[in-house]
Amino acid sequence: LVPPMLEEQPPEFPFLSLLVSAGHTMLIAVEELGNYRLLGTTLDDADGEAFDKTAKLLGLGYPGGPALAALAEGGDEAAFAFPRPMLNKPGFDFSFSGLKTAVMLEVRKAEAAGTLNRADVAASFQRAVVDTLVGRAIKAAKAERLERIVVAGGVGANKLLRQDIAARFDGSVFYPRLEFCTDNGAMIAVAGALRMSEAEMTGEIRATARWSLASLGVPAAAPTN
Question: Residue 223's pLDDT band (boundaries 50, 70, 90)?
């Protein structure tokens, strides 16, 4: 069973954000609104992309994450000894390209031998990803002395990830409700509303295609005449 999830109660600052999606895998120390420090990111592929590519390899539909997780429920997560990339290396970065390659090689070998069990591959792959994410996140939280972890992004809907990080972390773990894990519009709207409430009116609205986390400080309120 998935442990009770702190979905309705907003986390207090500071906290560690574990952002997991098809486009990003990041660990971010969040001191306050607009004050972020990037602790680690993926050096190649994001975890969500690895889910989608592995799902495609197994003949599942897109998006592959939910389909692969469903298939994994009937598999043996110890059937394949897939690597846990970067887990025991210094720092807090991630890498998933090697894991994808390992899965591809095992699938081709099993197909050639006529012994492919897709559920076992899915379960073993999911376990490797979750072990990597949870291990790195807890390591970062301890290093930064943070007692709260916020899991966000599409992969945050994964039941095994939610279950494991809540069971293994000594502090509090927060999640969006499942329907908001993949709702980019809701994420952007909440972020904008929070920034507007803190800064009131900036006097200027600018659209910028790419912002670094370091440049996202809350703007000062516009002067009044």
Answer: very low
State the DSSP string of 20-82.
ESSS-EEEEEEEETTEEEEEEEBSS--HHHHHHHHHHHTT--SSHHHHHHHHHTTS-TTSS--
Distant-in-sequence, close-in-space partners of 218: CB < 8 Å, separation ≥ 6: 33, 34, 195, 198, 199
- Helical residues (DSSP H) of the chain, grouped into ranges: 47-57, 64-72, 97-113, 118-144, 159-168, 184-199
pTM metric for this prediction: 0.86
Q: What is the DSSP letter of 174?
A: E
Of 178, 192, 184, 181, nearest in space to 18 by CA: 181
Three-state DSSP at 16 gives: strand
Sheet of 148-152, strands arranged across: 35-41, 25-32, 15-20, 148-152, 172-174
Q: What is the pLDDT of residues 76-117, one digit of tens each?
A: 999 999 999 999 999 999 999 999 999 999 999 999 999 999
Q: Tell me which amino acid residue 108 is.
A: R
Best CA proximity match to 34, nearest among 173, 196, 185, 171: 196
